[in-house]
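Sequence in, structure out. Go.
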Amino acid sequence: MRTILGVCVAVLLVAACKANSISSDFESPNATLQSLFRAYGVEETPEAEIQRRLQARERFDLLDEELFRSCFSDWQGEHDQGLGGYVFGRLAAGKDHLELEVSDSLARVRSAAEPAEVEPVVLVQTEHGWKIDLRQSVPDELRRQLYEVYRRARRAERKAL
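Output:
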């Protein structure tokens, strides 16, 4: 009887530890989106100002690179920076009018201003919380183009050295 009770207590402790291992930054799809905005310091910036800056092609400075990378379930390295930037720009441009649809361990987000045929940004629930899935959120052709831009920049950088 003691052995069974001990095993039950151990299982409950492990479950409690695992439940507590999810950062509040990623406890929900909304928390993850706010974390992405916080990584760039735009969580309080009005949507209209973000849109103005995007249209003027002004740069957004990444303030917390670690938080930024942590927002993604499938971040593989520096070459994913362009994908993350694309997702950030898309979400930030409509941040005051985001529509979120959650079913089980998948969430889809889009701005109310985007046409219905535009693929949503996809978040997946992981053991570390809700994370944006870059490969589901960036269209294939755009992903290929961004990777090519990265490769060209790296080649030019190596030649310059």
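Check: Residues 140-160 form the longest helix (21 residues). The CA atoms of residues 103 and 134 lie 19 Å apart.
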